[in-house]
Every structure is written in structure tokens, then in C-alpha cells.
UniProtKB/TrEMBL annotation:
Annotated protein name in UniProt: CoA-binding protein
Organism encoding this protein: Hymenobacter lapidiphilus
SUPFAM superfamilies on file: NAD(P)-binding Rossmann-fold domains
Residues in CoA-binding domain copies: 2-114
A Pfam entry, by short name: CoA_binding_2
Taxonomic path: Bacteria, Pseudomonadati, Bacteroidota, Cytophagia, Cytophagales
Amino acid sequence: MKKTLVLGATDNPARYAYRAIHQLKQHGHEVVPVGIRKGQVAGLDIRNDRPAAEGVDTVTLYVGPQNQPGWYDYILDLHPKRIIFNPGTENPELEKLAQQRGIETEEACTLVMLSVGQY
């Protein structure tokens, strides 16, 4: 299964990041939730620091492009295999930086990918 860091994690059930964390866990993926505020989602503590996470396969973004620059180094230094830009998080600058480091990028919806078996 794919270890996934969810950037923009929240304990608000109305948010897509909340639903994605639940769905990732239900599909057997290890999840590292990182958000602005501490909390809990799907039995996991939301980290509001920049945890060192080894073996991250995927970073799935739920942070808008205007708030991403402060996270660039953290995301890229994780050396994930891919970054998923969920709707509303598309960012050509970060995509280019990632691709220059050999990181695959996808503009897609994590929830849809999981539901159709394309994750």
C-alpha cells in the first residue's frame, strides 16, 4: 500500500481532506495527516509541524496554491514518488519543481482515484 502524506488535513468532516484520509485508511494506505491545526481524524493525530516521514509514496494536496510556497522545500525533501494536486490546488510552479526532481505529478482527485481503483 502507498504511504500518503495528506497536506491540508483537518478534523472538519465537511472538508475533502477529511474524507480523503478516511478513504485512504479504508483502502489500507498508511496516512500521515499534516495540517494547520492539531486535531484528530480517522483515529490519527493531525501534525501541525513538518514531520520527518520516511518512505512517502504520495503527497496529496489540499492546500491552495497561494499557501503552498512555504511548503515547497518540505514536500520536495520528502522525495515522494508523486504529488497529487486535488481540484483547486493546481500549481504549475510546484509541478515544475517536482518534475525537475523526478517526482511524478497528477492533477486529479484523490477521492475519485480511490473510488475507481486508480490510486
